[in-house]
Amino acid sequence: MQTINFLKPNRNNIKNYSIIGSVLILISLIDVISNAFLKINLTSFLPGSLTILFPLILGLIGLNMMRIDYSGNKTLDLLNKNINTNNFNALLTLLILFSIIKALPPSLSWMILDANISGDSKDACTGTGACWTYIKVWFRRFMYGMYPNEFHWRINTAFILVIALGFVGYFMKENLKKYLALYYVIIYPIIAYLVIYYLISGGSFGLQWVETGAWGGLSLTFIVSFFCLIFCFPLGMIFALGRRSNLPVIKYISICYIEFWRGVPLITVLFMSSVMFPMFLPEDFFMDKLVRVIIAITLFEAAYCAEVIRGGLQSLPRGQYDAAKSLGMGYWKMHIFVILPQALKLVIPGIANTFLALVKDTPLIFVVGLAELAGMLALAKTNPKWLGFAMEGYIFASIIFWIICYAMSKYSYNLEAKYKTER
Amino acid sequence: MSDPIIKIQNMNKWFGDFQVLKNINLEVEANKKIVVCGPSGSGKSTLIRCINRLEEHQEGDIIVDGNELSEKTKDIEKIRAEVGMVFQQFNLFPHLSILDNCTLAPIWVKKMPKKEAQELALDQLKKVQIDDQANKFPGQLSGGQQQRCAIARALCMQPKIMLFDEPTSALDPEMIKEVLDAMVSLAKGGMTMIVVTHEMGFAKEVADEVIFMDEGMIIEKADTKEFFANPKSDRTKLFLSQIL
């Protein structure tokens, strides 16, 4: 007991104790860092297993010596409150810190120090690290798929146009604001479709026709996600309202729809859309594979959206319905002006969740032969000239997907903050 | 005597197997103020919710301003627009400012021009003395202010009848007064009012008639003075002795 008390600080000696504690932690950190970066074992004089545990024990003693309820020192209090509340938390803190330090040198040397990016063939990759040359050489394929190189400007222009049109809402005049929903739900998708059809597909205005089978890479990810997102949301809203309808026919159609699409895996839906569905179509009727896939994903995700939105509708107190009704509003006015604005605000996190899942589900379209970003990777890694670089490709793809998804989730936080009116 | 503006005949209502309202007969003439009181669970709120058909009754007739309420009633919205209602929990729309709360229904239900609706709303807000809060959101207001805003919102539809469903039950004692004041001045303006409340002071001051309900039945219905001076039934006497 004496020794434990000896290590317990009090308000009078905290200054000395925290200095000694910091020194001990510093020594343990130096030991781990030198071990990881310089491959020098400072504690080689100790017996085997103790060498590994030495920095941990030293660090624990150090943190223990600094642990006090209230010291008056801001930094110390912050430290104690957040990472040093008890021995277990102190242990976790040290373990996480040490494993990060240990993992840093090998990952750094693989990704940067020993990596290659020069040259344009596999032979340029002489180092033991990553071969970024592979990404560099295949970059255009990863972005545009098999789309002919000389027409890439068409994809870029189409995307810039579509994005620019998306911002129209910000610059709309005040008296046109009431048509905003109409614009985004009906007009915008049609314009976007036309832009993408005429620019990327081509076939008229002197532009050469490029079939959808050649589309691919990140641009295809964007096209599929974009159309699925803007169509599945209004559709989901309709089914969410339908499921809560008093009219039995509408209600049961909605329930059947939602339960059907939630019950089947997306991959089978995609197979059905590309393999089975054309069999049921009349001979002379042709629908592009990409369009079929987009419709399939939209219908699939709409069921999920519907349930998320229904959650929001159910969380509204009955009083809101009563108040709207008592003011003489009918079903549609009540929902458009009172219920949906509140419910949709509540479900922003859930909708963002669904949308993120949708974007990350797009690689599944590879099973029907459409190669978006992850699909192009799968093709590229089996190229005989470039065997053995799957790791680089997947890291590249995960970084891209992470950026897209992080941007979306950030945007959803902004929306939440923007529409927050309570309190 | 003019025709009653609200006429309820032999009305019965069930929630599942439980009968909440039993054989209700009630006539309210225009410009009269009726206070409905009684213990909780006696069906007071359900009764006035039936008057603008937020609840459906199963038997009997309810006639509001010459229109019978039933499943066949086509434009129930039109009747509801004539009947304003104020709730215990205020039920303001939290995503709209106070002014927008008041103008929403006049603009979209009555097709009033926006400017006119805003002037009307500010006028009504001024009457309940919260016109200076018009651009705030409901969450930023005190309970009493919210309830006064709810009164103004209902009045913006220029209704013929106002229903109050325990408007002061969710308020601090201090705020009750400001809401009651607004209701008193409304009553003096000649509005037809049906008020469910436990505020007997308010009943004595403005009510023409007091109705006492218990277990889904109207036990006693009398002029205000008569009601408080010599209540007839024992149940009423018991209730009054507890509440006063």
Characterise this structure.
Chain A has 2 domains: 100 residues, no CATH class; 229 residues, MetI-like fold (Orthogonal Bundle), CATH 1.10.3720. With 423 residues, chain A is mainly α. Helices cover 72% and strands 0% of the residues of chain A. With 244 residues, chain B is an alpha/beta fold. Helix content of chain B is 38%, strand content 26%. Chain B is built from 9 helices and 10 strands. In chain B, helix 3 packs across helix 4, helix 3 runs parallel beside helix 5 and helix 5 runs parallel beside helix 6. The model of chain B has no long low-confidence stretch (mean pLDDT 88). The chains are: A mainly alpha (423), B alpha/beta (244). Chains A and B meet through helix 14 and helix 15 of A and helix 2, strand 6, helix 3 and helix 5 of B.
Question: What's this, in brief?
Answer:
Chain A is mainly α. Helix content of chain A is 72%, strand content 0%. Chain A folds into two domains: 14-113, no CATH class; 132-147 and 210-422, MetI-like (MetI-like fold).
What's the average pLDDT of chain A?
Answer: 83
**Mind describing the biggest β-sheet of chain A?**
none
Which fold name is given in CATH as the topology of the largest domain in chain A? MetI-like fold
Order of SSEs of chain B? EEEHEEHEHHHEHEHEEHH
The CATH class of the largest domain in chain A turns out to be Mainly Alpha
Instruction: Bin the helical content of chain B.
Output: 25-40%
**Model regions low in confidence, pLDDT < 50 over at least 5 residues of chain A:** none
- Fourth CATH level, the homologous superfamily of the largest domain in chain A: MetI-like
Order of helices and strands of chain A: HHHHHHHHHHHHHHHHHH
Sheet with the most strands of chain B? 6 strands, mixed
Q: Please give the alpha-carbon distance between the first and last residues of chain B.
A: 34 Å
Q: Which second-level CATH architecture of the largest domain in chain A applies?
A: Orthogonal Bundle
The share of residues in helices of chain A is over 70%
Rg of chain A, alpha carbons: 29 Å
Number of helices of chain B: 9
User: How much of the polypeptide of chain A forms β-strand, as a percent range?
Assistant: under 5%
The greatest interface here is: A-B, 22 and 30 residues
List how many beta strands of chain A DSSP finds.
0
Task: Look at the structure and give the mean pLDDT of chain B.
Answer: 88
> Within the largest sheet of chain B, what's the order of strands?
6-7-8-3-9-10
State the end-to-end CA separation of chain A: 53 Å
